[in-house]
Amino acid sequence: MLWLAFGPFHTMENQVLVIRIKIPNRGAVDWTVNSGPQLLFRDVLDVIGQVLPEATTTAFEYEDEDGDRITVRSDEEMKAMLSYYYSTVMEQQVNGQLIEPLQIFPRACKPPGERNIHGLKVNTRAGPSQHSSPAVSDALPSNSLKKSSAELKKILANGQMNEQDIRYRDTLGHGNGGTVYKAYHVPSGKTLAVKVILLDITLELQKQIMSELEILYKCDSSYIIGFYGAFFVENRISICTEFMDGGSLDVYRKIPEHVLGRIAVAVVKGLTYLWSLKILHRDVKPSNMLVNTRGQVKLCDFGVSTQLVNSIAKTYVGTNAYMAPERISGEQYGIHSDVWSLGISFMEPLQLLQCIVDEHAKTAKRKAGT
Ligand code: ATP
Ligand code: MG
């Protein structure tokens, strides 16, 4: 029980914590926190954002006793840092030394671009705040208190969905980007499909993704999956959509031609709807075509957010057999590329094509001598 070491009147809960935020080439800013043990990772990022408004920070580091830097990217890692720090404070107390502030080193990233793939202007929604952060002491200049944690959380929560209201049930499947869960939304009693994607990106990019996803609220087509909202928790985004009880088309072995014809019509209608909104799907394939027992066919996982597409692409492994050649070779992507993928999705036998792709990759590797 670490906190007992502070004695009955100085438990960890009432210890004032001083965090020294080290700014590269510009010294440091001391931040006094009254409720150190309750501090959340997001609160620290928020304050770093106020100290370094020109940079976007998703993580910070602290030094252990050997001077090695340890990265903090989540509440768990925050807890580990605080318990390490409080143990050093105890040692300093025992030895009658002056208590050193907790030094942290923000890790900055580059700010994002202004426009998305559709040429639409990106609105980051970070308006001025009326509130100041209660956790921040006078050590910070008051005019730098731009956003409260509550406001930041609001920016990072698109729609009415939040983690506390969701009960995760079964895993529906894993893809390249993340995992999809069947879940229950307590307030509405709705069954959802929640796609959870791990994204190690800046706070600024998180906000941009949220803003770009807003267009999904405007999608109103019976051929497009319903969107309920999205939110970030630490470095994970959860995207909540309509649950389709028939799953995706990739699990159906042989689909009779007349059924396939009807499915193809629905998919084309879904795609033309997206194209009319200047959205390219970018990932047309059977696992992104969902069906339900009401006989509906709906498209999901379309590339509405450039930042989301880019961030997932960074961790993407393998060759997508449905991808158009111009996409594979990195040329311009257009409606015709979606049409290619559509054709491949309905072509048989697909295994043959996969063999060609795999064989081609193997030959290329052999030629490269790897
Ligand atoms: P990729 O990551 O390349 O898109 P994928 O489509 O196979 O590959 P996910 O998008 O993560 O992977 O989806 C995993 C599985 O979850 C899908 O194959 C599908 O069966 C299921 N799934 C996805 N969304 C829903 C939904 N709204 N309702 C029911 N099942 C879904
Ligand atoms: Mg998918």
Write a compact overview of the structure shown.
This protein has 370 residues and is an alpha+beta fold. It is 31% helix and 22% strand. It has two domains: 17-109, Ubiquitin-like (UB roll); 160-355, Transferase(Phosphotransferase), domain 1 (Orthogonal Bundle).
Structure description:
The model is unreliable at 1-10 and 110-148 (pLDDT under 50). The chain has helices at 41-51, 75-94, 149-155, 203-213, 215-218, 257-276, 306-315, 325-328, 335-345, 350-367, and strands at 17-23, 27-33, 56-63, 69-72, 102-109, 157-159, 166-174, 178-185, 190-198, 227-233, 236-242, 289-291, 297-299. The protein has a 6-stranded antiparallel sheet. It is elongated. Helices cover 31% and strands 22% of the residues. The protein folds into 2 domains: 17-109, Ubiquitin-like (UB roll) (Roll); 160-355, Transferase(Phosphotransferase) domain 1 (Transferase(Phosphotransferase), domain 1, Orthogonal Bundle). The chain is an alpha+beta fold. Strand 3 and strand 4 form a beta hairpin. The protein has 10 helices and 13 strands. It binds adenosine-5'-triphosphate and magnesium ion. Residues 172-178, 180, 193, 195, 225, 241-244, 247-248, 283, 287-288, 290, 300-301 line the site of adenosine-5'-triphosphate. Magnesium ion is lined by residues 175, 287-288, 301.
